[in-house]
Amino acid sequence: MRTNELYLLDIVQAADSIAQFVAGMEEEQFVGDDLVRSAVLHKLAVIGEAAARVSSELKHSYPGIPWADIVGFRNIAVHAYFSVDWGLVWNAAVFDAPTLKCDIEAIVKTRHVPQMQVKPGR
């Protein structure tokens, strides 16, 4: 069974990947690049899945994190793929994911979770 700490690290790593994918891009480039859009959407889904699996106790301990919204976004992304609003995905990638990453890193530090090494190419 995976722990809360591993799910939190999944969120941080996925947010890092998203930042790498969109680095130097403008929204118009993003919308026109199927490969990057698909990669970002996948990592946002990973974030949503990890957030869904974090224990209720941890979620209640950190009410400032919009857990339900994160999970809801994942559900929309996965189940309504053909009607995805790429502008919303862009905003999630460049505004929400970095903020969430900082918030989750703060939680990881307070829980004294050892940082996992990110493998090259991730």
From TrEMBL:
InterPro entries the record matches: HepT-like (IPR008201), HepT_RNase_toxin (IPR051813)
Entry keyword Nuclease: yes
GO CC terms, sorted: toxin-antitoxin complex
Record flagged with keyword DNA repair: no
Single Gene Ontology MF annotation: nucleotide binding
UniProt keyword list: Hydrolase, Nuclease, Nucleotide-binding, Phosphoprotein, Toxin-antitoxin system
Protein name: DUF86 domain-containing protein
Protein species of origin: Candidatus Accumulibacter adjunctus
Organism taxonomic ancestry: Bacteria, Pseudomonadati, Pseudomonadota, Betaproteobacteria, Candidatus Accumulibacter
